[in-house]
User: Which sequence fits this backbone?
């Protein structure tokens, strides 16, 4: 069981702690995806994204952004009420925000293990223990949403190989792909070839697309054996299996 002693200690905030962070939510839940799946984690969700995935599971950060400003002190105070040392900075797209560096430095200095989740379209220097990189495949392009008005912008931005290479070089990482159909595996293989970054297959996570348990079950049925035959890691979405698609989980 997690004890109070496992929480990071408080620290003196830097002068720039007046910085305002635009966040959708700060909450405590289990990490549902990736190598730290199951870890009790404090989530800090930035509001704002430069992509518009067709199946976005956090539309409140992208298609219909809504959030408020938080101070660094307020974020740390909230995190201090959660019995965990795992902090996950997510979005939206955290790398769009210049104060991501300040946030990650502060969390690390306070003793948190810091994961940053990103689609990998923008670069800046940050501090993190695990970068969860999730480049978006072609099926994410919203050609059939709102008359396709965001499709061209999304398609142009979604895959930035030079940025991905820089991020892979800079951090311990996991490379996570949302899989919609069996044919997507060829696209993943193509990206790995084009990256030419020596990514070990066990660091490549394939996650079924779906925001409902039934969708996840249906796709998992063919994705499990595909992962086994190709040597990729299967990535569950525990938070959806356990809670459904709900804010704060
Ligand atoms: S990158 Fe993430 S937050 Fe942005 S639109 Fe896609 S799924 Fe939503």
Assistant:
């Amino acid at each position: 069981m997690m004890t109070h002693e496992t929480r990071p200690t408080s620290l003196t905030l830097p002068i720039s702690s007046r910085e305002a962070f635009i966040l959708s939510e700060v909450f405590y839940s289990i990490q549902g995806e990736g190598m730290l799946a199951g870890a009790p984690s404090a989530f800090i969700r930035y509001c704002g994204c430069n992509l518009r995935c067709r199946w976005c599971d956090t539309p409140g950060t992208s298609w219909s952004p809504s959030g408020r400003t938080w101070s660094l002190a307020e974020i740390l105070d909230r995190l201090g009420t959660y019995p965990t040392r795992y902090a996950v900075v997510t979005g939206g797209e955290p790398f769009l925000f210049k104060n991501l560096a300040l946030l990650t430095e502060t969390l690390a200095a306070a003793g948190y293990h810091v994961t940053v989740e990103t689609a990998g379209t923008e670069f800046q220097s940050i501090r993190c223990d695990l970068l969860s990189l999730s480049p978006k495949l072609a099926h994410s392009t919203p050609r059939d949403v709102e008359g396709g008005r965001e499709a061209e912008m999304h398609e142009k931005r979604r895959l930035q190989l030079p940025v991905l290479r820089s991020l892979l070089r800079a951090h311990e990482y996991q490379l996570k792909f949302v899989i919609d159909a069996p044919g997507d595996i060829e696209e993943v293989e193509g990206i790995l070839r084009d990256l030419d970054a020596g990514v070990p297959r066990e660091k490549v996570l394939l996650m079924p697309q779906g925001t409902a348990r039934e969708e996840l079950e249906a796709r998992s049925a063919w994705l499990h054996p595909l992962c086994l035959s190709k040597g990729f890691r299967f990535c569950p979405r525990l938070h959806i299996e356990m809670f459904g698609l709900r804010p704060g989980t």
About this structure: The two ends are 20 Å apart (CA to CA). The pocket of iron/sulfur cluster is lined by residues 49, 51-53, 56, 58, 61-62, 91-93, 119 (CB under 6 Å). The chain has one domain: 23-243. The mean pLDDT is 93.
